[in-house]
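We modelled the chain as a single entity of 330 amino acids. Its sequence is:
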Amino acid sequence: MAEFRRAGMKNALPLRDVRVFVTGAGGFIGSHLVRALLAEGAEIFATSRKEAPWRLRGVSRRIAFRPISVTSEHALASALKSFEPAVVFHLAALVPARALASARSAEVIEGGTRSLARSLARIGSSARLVTLGSADEYGKARSPRETSRARALTPYGISKRRATEYLRRTAGAPFSAVVLRPPIVYGPAQDFGMFVPSCIRACLRREPFAVRGEKIARDFLYVSDLVDAMLLAAVCDSPRFTVVNVGSGRATPLSVAARIIAKRLRAETLIRLEPEARSAYEPETRRLIIDKARRELSWFPKVALAEGLFATIRWYEEHRELFSRLGAHN
């Protein structure tokens, strides 16, 4: 499988030969992160709930990999103790499209975070823990910053908020933690349950694609920009615990994103606008305030929406043989 495209940072980070532990390494974001860490020269111990994840093809021999459930505290503690990482990236989770009203989602997100934090504390690790929260933690806030009250309303957002609060209480004993809160993340090899790949698949197959009206707008972030933020969070000076928003800082209507995709694939007539459906759990428009990320991480998004969508489209055009692995129904 071809290498994923990554924008990359101009200067190398102090991660060469650093031991890095990654949970959820076989997932969409985790696999992009592993490739970026390899480019930085890090030594990687990767975990996933599946044996030999397909997204790690081509790099699996360059990492130590073990299928470990993130909810298994004993197995995590044993692996962490033997590997002794300086940095831990915790990405194991169920994606929102598969996790609504799911007890399994809470078990993985909340239980997995507790299990990992307890494992780090148990072995006395002083590692830097970097994990992902979610913009859904802010509930119906339209332009939240980190000081905004987290009033999550969706099951996914509630699980993420509880995991964040657990780390807020426990970080510093002895590990430190950075929670990055991204918006809608998109890019190559993402499951079809999410908005961008679902739209791409429909256009490629010449099938209608429905969008919720013209006013629903969201913040979109290309996966390489999120990976850059995670790498910077791993090496930044920060207190024992901090939360940082990472997004584009802009709200783009879902209909606009869909039309960019459809125009690129010459499928404009396939986009259908459904009557506006106001959610009781989300704002009509949401964009993240990212001043803190610029200030404390020296991070800002580099990939414009059209550029990121075009790169994502190219990947799906070139990898149709993988559609069955992404939830397509053939």
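As a brief sanity check on the tokenised model: The first strand starts at residue 19 and ends at 23. Confidence is low (pLDDT under 50) at residues 1-8.
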